[in-house]
Write a structure and sequence with these properties.
The chain has 518 residues and is an alpha/beta fold. The protein folds into 4 domains: 119 residues, Response regulator (Rossmann fold); 110 residues, no CATH class; 71 residues, Arc Repressor Mutant, subunit A (Orthogonal Bundle); 186 residues, P-loop containing nucleotide triphosphate hydrolases (Rossmann fold). Helices cover 36% and strands 22% of the residues. The longest helix has 26 residues. The chain is globular and about 80 Å long. The two termini are 49 Å apart.
Length: 518
């Protein structure tokens, strides 16, 4: 009879710790409680747990330092860790066999996550036994993620070749190969790419099959970066990719330079320069990724930025002409997320209201310019006052409704910025998707008239603010040029919208709205 699994719960929140201990005990696990990091370390060294559950901000010894100590000890290096913390706080802490969950999640959900981690450990242990027996190992990536598999072989200094294959709905059969020597990755290939670029692409596979064949490897290393550093960077990129995937260009789309060549900047980042050069001969984004020397995620993020600046235009789904039909403004994922977000605050079965997006501006002419751009967006219906320009800076009124899907849309509301309306701001912002802060110039003092509104909104829960800067014809600005003047600006909240009449605004507004969606 095997001993029950042991769970060490290191949590200063005693009520949560006791509730989680009861949930784990109901599953037949033994539990040990610790109130801080020092006590958890003492318990872990005395009796090695199978899983450690700890908040990121654990007292006395922080969770990251505690895990670092356990990883350095051969007796405790295999302990799995379930971090309690949000994505931003846990991404840099998590290792390869670890997981994270929101600290406000129900304890039953935490216990289920512990159960899943233990089940995965059993599968990985089975793979390790087969690998130690010097025999071929086979499995499914859905059961053992490739990052975990590579970490296992790295820890055990295995030498051999991993063959991967999967069927992708868009591209059909795909294959990949990874070569290890003494646990270190020395080569990766898939399709037309190899090296680190191929490795990052393969590590993004969520499904498929793998087989590891042990054997002597004689090839010269193509990958020289330490394996652990590669895997950590891959995890970071995958987490970030998942977070912003809906706003990135589709792999089936095409991209074109949208301005005359003499208007393109001469001094740019090497990645930007490479993309602009490749766009001379590559139009399909999938081909662009294959020909670029940079990882796919970095290329897509740069393409997104170039689109927002108006230098590149994205044509959806491989089309060679104009943008798609009305419902192409939002993809299936965006529609689903908005519907789920609206449903979360309503009783099940109740009719869903439209989402609300606020627009704040101290310059009515800038508002009129943005409204003219919105008028060309598929699914946008403006109210007569804004369609005809009959509004004032202090009007609290609906600008229009943007159709998202059957029965749901986004109501765009004009918010007055005068101090006398300060009491209304928190009420208007409650339950809103966010607030667009519209400016017509980005120099010193550009956001000064908006500061009272910004301070009020930022003091509320879940504030989401997005700076929108309208660029007159011929003007070119980069976000870094505006940073000294927009003191409240963060990298993810700035959108540059050119006002040139010949420029199709839909692709730029699509990128902006995708970022605004929940």
């Amino acid at each position: 009879m095997t001993d029950p699994c042991q769970i060490l719960i290191a949590d200063p929140d005693r009520r949560r710790a006791r509730a989680l201990a009861e949930a784990c005990g109901a599953r037949g696990y033994q539990t040990v409680l610790a109130a801080n990091g020092a006590s958890a370390l003492e318990n872990a060294l005395a009796d090695v747990p199978d899983v450690l559950v700890a908040p990121v901000d654990l007292g006395l010894i922080e969770a990251s330092k505690l895990v670092e100590i356990l990883r350095a000890n051969p007796r405790t290096q295999a302990v799995r860790v379930l971090f309690l913390g949000d994505d931003a706080a846990t991404t840099k802490e998590r290792g390869f066999f670890d997981d994270a969950i929101d600290p406000t999640a129900p304890v039953e959900e935490m216990a289920l996550r512990v159960e899943a981690m233990l089940a995965q450990r059993e599968r990985i242990d089975a793979v390790q036994r087969e690998a130690e027996a010097e025999q071929e190992v086979q499995g499914k990536l859905a059961q053992i993620p490739l990052t975990d598999l590579l970490q296992l072989f790295h820890m055990n200094r295995r030498t051999g070749t991993i063959e991967l294959d999967r069927t992708d709905p868009a591209t059909g059969e795909e294959r990949g190969t990874l070569v290890l020597r003494d646990g270190n990755l020395i080569q990766a290939t898939t399709g037309r790419v190899d090296g680190e670029k191929a490795l990052y692409r393969l590590l993004a596979w969520a499904d498929g099959s793998f087989s590891f064949t042990p054997g002597r490897v004689t090839m010269a290393p193509r990958i020289v970066t330490p394996t652990r550093a590669l895997l950590m960077e891959a995890l970071r990129q995958i987490d970030e990719w998942d977070r912003v995937a809906e706003s990135l260009p589709s792999l089936s789309a095409r991209a074109r330079i949208a301005v005359p060549h003499h208007e393109l900047p001469r001094a740019v980042h090497p990645l930007t320069q490479e993309i602009l050069t490749l766009l001379e001969t590559c139009e399909e984004i999938r081909d662009l990724l294959d020909h670029s020397s940079f990882p796919d995620y970095q290329v897509l993020r740069t393409l997104q930025t170039l689109t927002e600046r108006g230098w590149v235009r994205i044509l959806r789904d491989g089309s060679r002409g104009e943008e798609g039909p009305e419902d192409a403004l939002f993809d299936a994922g965006g529609k689903r997320r908005l519907r789920e977000w609206l449903q979360s605050s309503r009783p099940r079965g109740a009719a869903l209201p439209d989402a609300k997006l606020l627009l704040a501006s101290v310059d009515p002419s800038a508002t009129r310019d943005l409204v003219r751009l919105l008028a060309g967006v598929p699914g946008m219906r403006l109210t007569p006052e804004f369609q005809e320009g009959r509004f004032q800076a202090d009007d609290l009124a609906t600008i229009g409704r943007l159709r998202v899907d059957e029965g749901i849309g986004i109501e765009l509301v004009h918010v007055p910025t005068a101090a006398g309306f300060g009491a209304c701001w928190p009420v208007l912002a409650q339950g809103a998707l966010g607030t667009l802060l519209l400016m017509s110039q980005g120099g010193p003092g550009a956001e000064e008239p908006l500061r009272p509104l910004i301070r009020t909104l930022r003091s509320g829960p879940d504030a989401r603010l997005f700076h929108v800067l309208l660029l007159p014809k011929g003007e070119r600005l980069a976000p870094e040029e505006l940073q000294p003047h927009l003191s409240l600006l963060d990298d993810a909240s700035l959108f540059l919208l050119p006002l040139e009449q010949q420029r199709e605004p839909v692709s730029l507004l699509r990128a902006m709205l995708a970022r605004v969606m929940p």
